[in-house]
Specification:
Helix content is about 25%, strand content about 30%. A hairpin with a 2-residue loop joins β9 and β10. The protein has 3 domains: about 80 residues, Uridine Diphospho-n-acetylenolpyruvylglucosamine Reductase, domain 2 (2-Layer Sandwich), CATH 3.30.43; about 110 residues, 2-Layer Sandwich (Uridine Diphospho-n-acetylenolpyruvylglucosamine Reductase, domain 3); about 100 residues, UDP-N-acetylenolpyruvoylglucosamine reductase, C-terminal domain (Uridine Diphospho-n-acetylenolpyruvylglucosamine Reductase, domain 1, Alpha-Beta Complex), CATH 3.90.78.10. Bound molecules: flavin-adenine dinucleotide (FAD) and uridine-diphosphate-2(N-acetylglucosaminyl) butyric acid. The site of flavin-adenine dinucleotide has 32 residues, from β4, β9, β13 and β14. Uridine-diphosphate-2(N-acetylglucosaminyl) butyric acid binds next to β14, α7 and β20.
């Protein structure tokens, strides 16, 4: 009989076909490509499997970590937890009239594929959110956003399993408490729910939003005065993103590593006097600073320490040049926070979630 190495061992829990792997490598389950492993790891394709996985963790008195595509996490080297990969599939149109198209998608669906699927079903609005990596179930966690659109603009509700009770609960937009890269699932309800599906209300008629950065310019350059289709906009967004952001398949990264910080008008006045070229946008009563510009100004763009560095074309993106651990990434990011704080008096907040269970 061939003896399987420990990391290949599979536990059959409660006589079910649910495969729970022990000491499972997560190197290919996080887009930073960090060296990390989980004490237990399981793939869940149905809510029943998810509930079973939760029962297993409860039994073992272990925390659970839901994982989608791992594009917004920094993983510690060993996670003493059950990592639950969310594979729940399914996309459907629930309702359609002349103004709106209501769609539902399983949490394990790929976000970008949902965007393209919606466009082929003449359901518009998500085109500016094209090519954001990750799953549908993770999208509400930080209220994903890009090119002037956020998930919350089209969000109706989600269903989620309560980790403690196993009950399925529904959250409408208000209950999700969305903010910039924020929701209740990162705050008061942290680690309490696993999202299983999301409902969105999309536009039946395209309303192009081309106001952000180079997007409008690129569309006009390509189409002149012709009205762009949703696919034209999606393509332009993809092209801009491919130019600016590193492809995780080529070099490990988690997108923007810090949020763009918001400051008060009086703080903005002071900074503007010292740095007349500072990149900032008004947001309500506050100002949002471009964190990439702040880091760039400290001279850290393209710099590295060991395996971790900032991306050469976008200082806000940290990259793994190979062989980095979560701790390496955290140390490098702390150095950036310190340098930016020393120069501008601004504290950068990390965007990806750090797990070190
Ligand atoms: P994961 O990284 O797997 O998980 C992220 C967090 O959500 C973790 O805390 C995890 O536990 C939790 N989670 C995941 N699934 C569930 C679930 N079903 N239920 C409960 N909790 C869950 N983000 C933007 O907003 N805008 C961008 O433009 C953008 N660009 C990016 C570009 C690149 C190149 C990369 C690598 C990342 C970018 N991101 C961007 C960040 C990332 O794509 C999003 O945060 C995305 O929603 C993460 O999805 P995921 O499935 O990979 O989540
Ligand atoms: N900039 C620099 N130097 C740099 C990087 C940026 O000067 O090294 C300047 C740019 O010239 C530009 C400004 O900073 O004037 C903003 O840069 P960019 O347009 O690239 O956008 P961003 O603020 O860095 C944000 C989101 C992205 C999102 C894009 C498009 C955050 C934290 N990041 O990036 O989201 O895709 O806008 O909407 O809000 C993510 O969250 O992971 C992410 C990639």
């Amino acid at each position: 009989m061939v003896k399987l190495p420990k990391y290949c061992r599979i536990n059959y829990y409660m006589n079910s076909p649910l495969k729970i792997h022990e000491n499972y490598s997560l190197k290919h389950q996080n887009t930073l490509g960090l060296l990390a492993s989980a004490r237990y790891y399981v793939e869940t394709h149905t809510v029943a499997e998810l509930l079973e996985a939760l029962a297993f963790a409860r039994d073992k008195k272990l925390p659970v970590i839901p994982l989608g595509s791992g594009s917004n996490v920094v993983l510690g080297e060993f996670l003493n937890a059950l990592v639950i990969h969310i594979n729940l599939e399914g996309r459907s149109v629930l309702q359609r009239d002349q103004n709106r198209v209501v769609v539902r998608a399983g949490a394990g669906e790929n976000w970008h594929e949902l965007v393209l699927w919606a466009l082929t079903h003449e359901a518009f609005g998500l085109e500016n959110l094209s090519l954001i990596p990750g799953t549908v179930g993770a999208a509400p966690i930080q209220n994903i956003g890009a090119y002037g659109v956020e998930l919350k603009d089209y969000f109706v509700s989600l269903e989620a399993v309560n980790v403690e009770s196993g009950e399925i609960e529904c959250f409408d937009r208000q209950a999700c408490g969305f903010g910039y890269r924020d929701s209740v699932f990162k705050g008061e309800k942290l680690d309490q729910y696993i999202i299983t599906s999301v409902i969105l209300e999309l536009d039946a008629v395209l309303k192009p939003r081309l106001g952000y950065g180079q997007l409008g310019e690129l569309v006009v350059k390509r189409l002149g005065n012709d009205v762009p289709s949703a696919f034209d906009i999606s393509q332009a967004v993809c092209d801009i993103r491919r130019e600016k952001l590193p492809d995780p398949a080529v070099i490990g990264n988690a997108g923007s590593f810090f949020k763009n910080p918001e400051i008060l008008p009086e703080e903005m006045d002071n900074l503007k006097k010292l740095y007349p070229n500072i990149v900032a946008y008004p947001v309500g009563q506050k100002w949002k600073l471009a964190a990439g510009w702040l880091i760039d100004q400290t001279g850290l763009k393209g710099k590295r320490e060991g395996a971790v560095g900032t991306y050469q074309n976008q200082a806000l993106v940290l990259v793994n040049h190979g062989g980095a651990t979560g701790q390496d990434v955290l140390s490098f990011s702390s150095m950036i926070q310190q340098k930016v704080n020393e120069k501008f008096g601004v504290l950068l907040e990390r965007e990806p979630r750090f797990y070190n269970a």
